[in-house]
Design goal:
The chain is of the alpha+beta class. It folds into two domains: 83 residues, 2-Layer Sandwich (Copper Amine Oxidase, Chain A, domain 1), CATH 3.30.457.10; 204 residues, Zn-dependent exopeptidases (Aminopeptidase), CATH 3.40.630. A six-stranded mixed β-sheet has the order 13-10-14-17-15-16, with helices on both faces. Strands 3-4-5-6-7 form a five-stranded antiparallel β-sheet. Helix 3 packs across helix 6, helix 4 crosses helix 9 and helix 6 crosses helix 9.
Length: 340
């Protein structure tokens, strides 16, 4: 009996030691996995894109040349390069807050960009404070003494183009059952700071500011959509954050929804009106800083480009632009309706 008891104790001890070794191995493996999934750089956390994509049901692989990582699922394709600050989501360029990092054959994305871009567009159901879509605020940029961009050779003035497209968009949105408020419905000068105030006073659910672009080069062309730059990030035209980028504005409460709205508006513009896709960008425009609802600013082409200017002289093309904006807003609204 004493020998049997000793044998039993020995067996239990062996089993315990094996379990202890297994637990230690799992703990070490978990730490190693965590090291592969996350990376710290300049005080920021970066996530491994392949692992992040796997959590979203996407497969990851390097494209030929080993410069671009592709994430792919049945519905979505994401391409992003090493050290790049632009991510292509279903071919649409989205400007990131920080460049990607490559380490030991793995590509890392800033955690802030992972949350603000990928989760916002691909899994908005994971976000909190879901907005509704009942009242749209249309902001026709410039007006009155502020003419905006112009091409006198073609008789184009941005303030007139903005109002024309805004009115066309208003008609379509109201026909779909949405309420619409215009920040201006005539050739009036409205100070920039008053435009978001109007949106907030009217309890807007979505704000869209309509503009046209101009450049010294007549070859510049295409559409671009701007959302408010998140706190601590540099706007798209700057290489890195500055001291003033630490400020948080009221509009930053809507950062994830700004991205989702901007994605659908920009995609609809390119699909509906054609032309160069200049992407979804970030800027701290005054009309976006103090909004209490999701908002974007769109640039609907360069009046300085002769081919674009010629098209803008036609009511048909201006109607196409308005229809594309309507499609983008509608897609955004349908995405909200599908959320649980």
């Amino acid at each position: 009996m004493r020998i049997d008891a000793l044998q039993g104790d020995c067996i239990r001890m062996v089993v315990f030691c094996r379990l202890l070794v297994l637990a230690l191995c799992l703990a070490v493996g978990s730490r190693a996995l965590a090291q592969r999934i996350e990376l710290q750089h300049e005080g920021r956390t970066y996530v491994d894109l392949a692992s992040a994509g796997g959590r979203l049901g996407m497969q990851a692989y390097w494209l030929k040349g080993y410069d671009t990582l592709r994430l792919r699922s049945q519905w979505t394709t994401i391409d992003v390069g090493k050290g790049e600050r632009i991510l292509y989501l279903n071919s649409l360029p989205i400007h990131l807050g920080f460049p990607t990092l490559e380490s030991s054959g793995r590509l890392y994305l800033a955690q802030a960009d992972y949350r603000q871009v990928l989760l916002s567009v691909l899994t908005p159901q994971s976000l909190s404070n879901r907005p509704k879509l009942r009242r749209v605020i249309i902001d026709a940029g410039h007006g009155g003494k502020d003419e905006g961009a112009k091409n006198e050779a073609y008789g184009l003035y941005e303030k007139k183009l903005n109002l024309d497209v805004a009115r066309r968009l208003k008609v379509m949105l109201e026909r779909s059952g949405l309420e619409v408020v215009m920040t201006r419905n005539s050739d009036a000068f409205i100070p920039l700071e008053r435009r978001p105030q109007i949106a907030n006073r009217e309890n807007g659910d979505l704000f869209i500011s309509i503009h046209f672009n101009a450049a010294d080069s007549t070859t510049a062309e295409g559409f671009e959509t701007f959302a408010l730059t998140p706190q601590y990030q540099a706007s798209s035209k700057y290489p890195k954050p500055g001291r003033g980028d630490n400020i948080r504005y009221e509009g930053n409460d809507q950062d994830p929804w700004n991205t989702l709205l901007g994605y659908h508006v920009q995609r609809a513009l390119v699909q509906g009106a054609g032309g160069t896709d200049r992407g979804l960008k970030r800027a701290r425009f005054l009309v976006l800083k103090h909004l209490n609802c999701p908002g974007v600013l769109v640039e609907l082409g360069f009046v300085s480009n002769p081919a674009t200017a010629q098209k803008l002289r036609t009511a048909v093309f201006r109607q196409t632009l308005a229809e594309s904006l309507y499609d983008g807003i509608t897609r955004y609204g349908k995405r909200l309706q599908r959320l649980p």
